[in-house]
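Hi X.,

You mentioned you wanted examples for the new student's onboarding notes, showing what a folding record looks like when two proteins sit in one file. Here is a clean example. The first protein comes first, with its sequence line followed by its structure tokens.
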Amino acid sequence: MSDALLNLLKNPHIWRGQARAEDPSWQGLASGYPKLDQHLPGGGWPRHALTEILMDHYGTGELQLLMPALARLSQLRESSEAGWIAWIAPPFEPYPPALVQWGVNLSRILIVRPRQAKEVLWAAEQALSSGNCAAVLLWPDAFDDAASRRLQLAAEAGQSWAIAFRSLKALTQSSAAALRIRLSAGDKGTDLGILKSRGGRPAVVRDYAG
């Protein structure tokens, strides 16, 4: 194999199938929901990457979806993954008793409320690339492909997990996110549609928490 090809295959943006499966760094962050993990490459949330969650309105179960993984990240000690969990411009006031019930360490939670909407993406990019955040959650008003690429690169640089909550209007827009999912209310619970998954396939996971 030529040196040029070897260098190309080392690029983290290239997925190599079996080679990735054997690479420990490709292992996902367990979501806490086995039914969902079966459909995610690496068996969990993509690490050091951007995840987009699309929904019709807030309160569709998006936080419940993330809580097991966020609780685990907040409790880590003596680990390169340990760090702050930053919430950028949440449209509500996080309820501490509920977070504690999920097992989240409140001392690791950082709430950031930018003065202007245009500062949300900037704050998220800075938090991701700092190397001090295990995860960054953001609720941006405006978002485009260029912004998703910046967040994806910042997550890779800072080895952080980025989660962007977006409206269903974003379905028609392209994105550099490693994972895009759609949440909707189902007959037996919340249904989850995997729209895009780096190294995986689209899928529908009905009542993923069941």
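Then the second protein repeats the pattern, sequence line and then tokens:
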Amino acid sequence: MPEWIIHILETPEEMAAVEELQRLVWSAPDIEVVPKDILLAIVHNGGLAIGAFVGTELVGASFGFPGFYQTPDGPRLKHHSHILAVHPDWRSKGMGFALKRAQWQMVRKQGLDRITWTYDPLLSRNAHLNVARLGAVCNTYLRSEYGEMLDGLNAGLPSDRFQVDWWLNSQRVERRLSRRSRPTLGLNYFRLAEATLLEACWDSNPIPRPPDEILSLSGTLVLVEIPYDFQALKAVDLALARDWRFYTREVFEEAFAAGYLVTDFVIDEGRSFYILTHGETTL
């Protein structure tokens, strides 16, 4: 049984707790926090806030709202997930996955089949949850999506983001959310499959740096390495963190323009790789 209880958030007191959780998780100044009155207005008009409680303490929350996206037949409704926050003491325990699964259930009951959200593509922990565990896919790169950000996690770098698509009724997502285990594919599997590997440069330095040049993208599979712990790298070398931002910006923009789609994420012996394919969305 889980150590927490999940339920929908609707009251001013609960939204005040969401405010405090934002400050804690992102070391965010008040100007970066979504305030409780806005949270309440949105959830009372079609939005969705979900909380995870240990006793009476809110230790995790997700928040999103309806939006539109364009199709050849005109605008169509989706849900956009804006916040997923987990208290530092409860990370790596499955709470983020549980909150997203509850969101998946509730949004499907609203009759929608797509959730989008953004995240920093250089954060391995987020990539593993969003792509590998939840089954979201991505072919949209957003430059400096939120402008200059002042919180502890984002200050000093352009706020580039992936926008991921979570197709709620797809076999891919239903398999990822099921209790069935997936085979673990390591780096050697992709080497044997003759995937194109864009690997970091390690030299004699334990801190990886971006390659000096971008290899030509070709073939069905492309693997793109990112730092395993980008926040730790940023803390010791902000200039190198900026190099990684601009390198991966160029790689992903080129890949998406060429028709590649992020479909998975692997961590192997302390190294992190995105897997890009040509349009594969079912695995």
